[in-house]
Amino acid sequence: MAGVMHKFLIASMFMWILPVAILYGFNHNLLPGSTTLSPHSLTLLSGFLAVVSVNIVIVFYICMALKEPADKHKPDAAFLAEAKDSVSKLTKGATSSDDHALKKQE
């Protein structure tokens, strides 16, 4: 579980740091070629690249999650039994309320 949280925290940090760094670099003329752009183009390009950087981080995070072995994480048996009971109660309650609604319509 600690490995999953570690990966999540790193991905979250990059989702904040990369867009801010890109916007800062463009707005303070730290990136080559950004001085020749008009203010409108500078804003559009920096915003677009910031959004693309966040999407790239999300794709990398998803790829890392898909590479983890599926048998590594086993659900808690007590939680699983409680969830199944809860779902079965909800489905039984839904059918009885549907029957009540049908009787009302008739």
TrEMBL record:
Main location: endoplasmic reticulum
Record carries keyword Membrane: yes
Membrane topology: Multi-pass membrane protein
GO CC entries: endoplasmic reticulum membrane; endoplasmic reticulum-Golgi intermediate compartment membrane; ER to Golgi transport vesicle membrane
Intracellular or extracellular location(s): Endoplasmic reticulum membrane; Endoplasmic reticulum-Golgi intermediate compartment membrane; Cytoplasmic vesicle, COPII-coated vesicle membrane
Keyword line: Cytoplasmic vesicle, Endoplasmic reticulum, Membrane, Transmembrane, Transmembrane helix
Transmembrane segments: 7-26, 46-66
GO biological process: vacuolar proton-transporting V-type ATPase complex assembly
UniProt record similarity statement: Belongs to the VMA21 family.
Function field: Required for the assembly of the V0 complex of the vacuolar ATPase (V-ATPase) in the endoplasmic reticulum.
Protein name: Vacuolar ATPase assembly integral membrane protein VMA21 homolog
Organism: Arabidopsis suecica
